[in-house]
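This week, work through this protein record:
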Amino acid sequence: MQAYEACHEPFARYCSALAYGKMDAQDLMQDVLLSAFQRFERIEKKDQLLHYLIRAARNRAVSVWRLGKRNTAITDQQTARLKERGASPELLMDVGILYAAIDELPDAQRDALVLFEVSGLSMAEIAAIQGINENAVKTRVSRARATVRARLDGRARPLRTEMLHALTSFML
């Protein structure tokens, strides 16, 4: 639990963003944490627990998505959580539109963007998780931002970078 304490907030944000509209974030977190707890002694680099958890969450989510388990009740639960945190109807619509655009990104770009913007990890941490150098992470994040921005052009209310940061506060 001591090792996990420092990882909790970025891991929870990552799982919330990863699971949005597809599965329950709490279920994803619990599955991954249970697995990590059961295998904790076999984790070689305990100082990189966050990296392990993020990779495990991504793998678990991909497994669930491959089975095609999409559930509208989950989206309703996530919407209810956002409402409880004070999200306006406009913000709820923006969240849905934003995540639809993010879902269309290539996996590597999507993960880099979510890890940086939502989880708040540094470029160095993301590079370690993705097994690439920092410049490659910067390129992925930059391309992901540009693609999302391009997909959202023409909306009545354009999505600004500040709005992306505001959305992250609602993801926990």
Q: What stands out?
A: Residues 2-66 form one domain. Residues 69-74 have pLDDT under 50 and may be disordered.
